[in-house]
C-alpha cells in the first residue's frame, strides 16, 4: 500500500471514479468538487487530496486543506473528508494518511493540523486531541480536534 496525491497521480479519472464509489455524502461532495473543478476554490489553492491505494484500489482518502467546514476561522490547515471504504475499516488505515499529513506538515513547518467531526473516541487514537466545539458552515455544532506536529 502507498499514499499518493490525487493531483500528482497521473490517473485522476480513475481515482475520481474510486472516490465516487464511497457511500458517504461528504465523499459525494468531494467527488463533485473534483469533477466540477471547484476543489481549490472551495478549500484553498494549496490543498491536497491524499489517497491510500493498493494497486488500482482505493482503500482510504482524506484532504489536507487550507479550509474545511468550520468557517470563518483563523485555524489552518485542516484534515478533512476522512473516509475508509467499509471492507477495509478496523485496520487503522486512516493512520497511514495521517502520517503522510504529518510528514507534509513537518516539511512545510506547520506546527498543528485541525480536524472537524462529530465522532468521539475515533481520532484520539491517531494523536488528535479535542480542541473546541465550533459551528460549521451549516450552523451545526462540530467537535474540532488538533494534532500537534513535532
By CATH, the architecture is named 3-Layer(aba) Sandwich
What structural category do the secondary elements indicate? alpha+beta
And the CATH topology? Aminopeptidase
Number of helices in the DSSP assignment: 4
Strand content: 25-35%
Mean pLDDT: 96
Structure characterization notes:
With 150 residues, the chain is α+β, with helices and mostly antiparallel strands. The chain has one domain: Aminopeptidase. It contains 4 helices and 7 strands; from the N terminus they run E-H-H-H-E-E-E-H-E-E-E. A 7-stranded mixed sheet has the order 1-2-3-4-5-7-6, sandwiched between helices. Strand 4 (78-84), helix 4 and strand 5 form a beta-alpha-beta unit. It is globular. The mean pLDDT is 96.
In summary, what is this structure?
With 150 residues, the protein is of the alpha+beta class.
Identify the notable features of this structure and list them briefly.
4 helices, 150 residues, alpha+beta, Aminopeptidase, 7-stranded mixed sheet
Amino acid at each position: 500500500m502507498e499514499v499518493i496525491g490525487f493531483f500528482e497521480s497521473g490517473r485522476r479519472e480513475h481515482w475520481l471514479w474510486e472516490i465516487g464509489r464511497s457511500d458517504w455524502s461528504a465523499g459525494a461532495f468531494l467527488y463533485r468538487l473534483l469533477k466540477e473543478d471547484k476543489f481549490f476554490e472551495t478549500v484553498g489553492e494549496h490543498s491536497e487530496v491524499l489517497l491510500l491505494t493498493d494497486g488500482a484500489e482505493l482503500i482510504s482518502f482524506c484532504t489536507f486543506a487550507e479550509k474545511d467546514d468550520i468557517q470563518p476561522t483563523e485555524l489552518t490547515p485542516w484534515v478533512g473528508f476522512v473516509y475508509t471504504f467499509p471492507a477495509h475499516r478496523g485496520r487503522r488505515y486512516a493512520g497511514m494518511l495521517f502520517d503522510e499529513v504529518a510528514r507534509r506538515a513537518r516539511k512545510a513547518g506547520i506546527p498543528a493540523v485541525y480536524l472537524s467531526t462529530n465522532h468521539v473516541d475515533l481520532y484520539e487514537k491517531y494523536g488528535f486531541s479535542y480542541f473546541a466545539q465550533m459551528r460549521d458552515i451549516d450552523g451545526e455544532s462540530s467537535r474540532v480536534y488538533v494534532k500537534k506536529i513535532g
